[in-house]
Amino acid sequence: MYAAIVAQARQTDFYARFLVPDTVDGRFDMIVLHVYLALARLRAANDACTDLQMMVQEAMFADLDRSLREMGVGDVSVGKHIKDMASAYFGRLSAYDAALESGEALKVEEVLARNVWRGGPIPGEDNARKLATYVLIQKEHLAKQDSALMCSGVVSFLAPDATLTANTNNPTEQEVPG
Question: Least CB-packed of 65, 73, 84, 166 within 10 Å?
């Protein structure tokens, strides 16, 4: 499942069409956003997926640790960086929960602007709105997926460009086994 999440977070549309910063921070934020979406869906399956939720988070932090080392961060500093990333991760989970539970698209847009673009200027007129629309549509799409299949590690995400078109009745779906 984590591999499918990372594959989705790396979709070029996020960086080319939504203008998410194509930086280490921007990629981190897209992974966190998609981990959040998958874990929120797994939580809805109640206790059936608790182990998978933990495994996805463990895989994410192991991947972050590996990535930091590949970028040349020294062994002594890796722990501090992971601690900072964990703090950012859990803060985003809480912020995304509050925004999505509100049911207000504007709150989702605001939380994405604050986290994905780090509160700075957002290139383009409506990229935060487009990403918020993507998140809301993706959440609905994930809610329709079979819980047993999700708990087995299989998740399918909609292609990012599916939310950019007016016709979302037949969006492009990408299924990647976990």
Answer: 166
Token pair for 75: 């062994």
What local confidence, expressed as pLDDT, does residue 52 receive? Answer: 94
Do 6 and 175 contact (CB within 8 A), yes or no?
no
The pLDDT value recorded for residue 76 is 84
How do 154-158 and 173-177 pair as beta strands? antiparallel
Q: What is the Cα gyration radius of the chain?
A: 16
Q: Coil, strand, or helix at residue 120?
A: coil
Cα separation of 27 and 162, whole Å? Answer: 20
Reported pTM: 0.89
Residue 47 has, within 13 A of its CA and on its CB side, a CA count of: 0
Most distant CA pair in the chain, distance: 51
Residue 174: pLDDT over 70: no
Distance from C-alpha of 74 to C-alpha of 133, rounded to nearest angstrom: 39
